[in-house]
Design brief:
By secondary structure, the protein is an alpha/beta fold. The chain has 3 helices and 5 strands. It has one domain: Nucleotidyltransferase, domain 5, CATH 3.30.420.
Length: about 120
């Protein structure tokens, strides 16, 4: 199964980015094979709509779950409508986040964890 982790870098040792829509990179990880690909988030510089654009990108990759620090209302709605499970409050390295996910230590998020425009100042 493919999952997506927001990341500050492009390796499994990178820190989880606390932002979804404006994260620096997405890491798409296959929980069956352990293979991953990193993709820069070009939506991060958008003045508005970064959450929606990022959610559409993630959905286009066939992801079933997203692991991130926070998710705003627009991204939450777009991901939820696509049937993607969202886990917020995730921190540490990407590798640690994947292990927590695989071991069932993360809880599905039922609502946005931050308001719109979160993360624009970074």
């Amino acid at each position: 199964m493919r999952i997506c982790i927001t990341s500050e870098g492009k390796t499994l040792d990178s820190k989880v980015d606390p932002r979804f829509g404006r994260c620096q990179n997405f890491i798409f990880f296959d929980t069956d094979t352990g293979k991953f690909e990193a993709q820069e988030n070009t939506n991060a510089q958008f003045q508005g709509g970064a959450g929606i654009q990022s959610a559409q990108l993630v959905n286009s990759k066939g992801v079933k779950s997203v692991l991130t620090g926070n998710v705003g209302p627009n991204a939450f709605q777009t991901l939820s409508a696509a049937g993607i499970q969202i886990y917020t409050g995730v921190s540490g390295t990407v590798k640690e986040a994947v292990e927590s996910y695989k071991n069932g230590k993360l809880k599905i998020t039922e609502s946005p964890s931050v308001g719109s425009k979160f993360g624009m100042g970074k």
